[in-house]
């Protein structure tokens, strides 16, 4: 019985800390903070008008799509395993246009979106963040939408939904290296 009381005490203290932190904010600020926290923790709330989102629409999706769990950018990154900043940029654009809660939904992204979602996903930040979107567009994953904004195109969509993760890519590289080694040994 003491354990249950202790757990309740901890919950009450956590609630008190949260309320104290939000006390100085106005309604819109509180909502933005709560939306961010819920998204960051991959939670949904019955009081918000954000529907639970099924993750990536693939038959092999491992992201939890139960009604009480909101797919996060970290979940998507862990499932899709992008290997480059270009692929991660396509993943961010996909997440914001297809998976993100309504409050975060966007059709076009900019450099500040990339930085925010690279950090949330735990993806390594590139040295030249402002160059990532133009590079992803040059790779064919995004289209320019003007004023520093970029939009996911069908190539980027197909990459995220059907092309990632590229588990076979590393095994192909290994087999190509092995073949080159065998050829060079034959020449010797």
Largest sheet strand order: 1-3-2
Alpha-carbon distance between the termini? 77 Å
- Order of helix and strand elements from N to C terminus: HHHHEHHEEHH
Our count of helices gives: 8
Mean pLDDT: 79
Q: What structural class results from the helix and strand content?
A: mainly alpha
Low-confidence stretches: 46-68
Detailed description of the structure:
This protein has 188 residues and is mainly alpha-helical. It is built from eight helices and three strands; from the N terminus they run H-H-H-H-E-H-H-E-E-H-H. A three-stranded antiparallel sheet has the order 1-3-2. Residues 46-68 have low confidence and may be disordered.
Features:
mainly alpha; 3-stranded antiparallel β-sheet; 8 helices; about 5% strand
What would you say about this model in short?
With about 190 residues, the chain is mainly α. Helix content is about 55%, strand content about 5%. Helix 3 crosses helix 4, helix 4 packs across helix 6 (about 130-140) and helix 4 packs across helix 7 (about 155-165).
How is the secondary structure organized here?
Layout: H1 2-22, H2 27-40, H3 73-80, H4 85-99, E1 108-109, H5 111-121, H6 132-138, E2 142-146, E3 149-152, H7 154-163, H8 167-187
Antiparallel strand pairs: 1-3, 2-3
């Amino acid at each position: 019985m003491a354990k249950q009381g202790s757990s309740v005490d901890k919950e009450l203290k956590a609630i008190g800390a949260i309320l104290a932190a939000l006390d100085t904010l106005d309604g819109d600020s509180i909502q933005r903070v709560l939306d961010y926290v819920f998204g960051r923790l991959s939670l949904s709330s019955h009081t918000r008008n954000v529907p639970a989102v099924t993750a990536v629409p693939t038959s092999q999706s491992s992201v939890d799509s139960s009604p009480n769990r909101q797919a996060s950018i970290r979940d998507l990154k862990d499932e899709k395993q992008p290997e480059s900043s270009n692929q991660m940029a396509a993943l961010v654009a996909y997440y914001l246009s297809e998976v993100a809660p309504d409050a975060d939904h966007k059709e076009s992204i900019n450099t500040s979106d990339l930085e925010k979602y690279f950090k949330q996903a735990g993806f390594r930040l590139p040295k030249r963040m402002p160059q990532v979107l133009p590079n992803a567009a040059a790779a064919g994953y995004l289209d320019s939408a003007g004023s520093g904004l970029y939009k996911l195109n069908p190539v980027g969509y197909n990459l995220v939904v059907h092309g990632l993760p590229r588990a076979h890519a590393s095994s192909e590289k290994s087999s190509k290296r092995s073949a080159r080694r065998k050829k060079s040994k034959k020449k010797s």
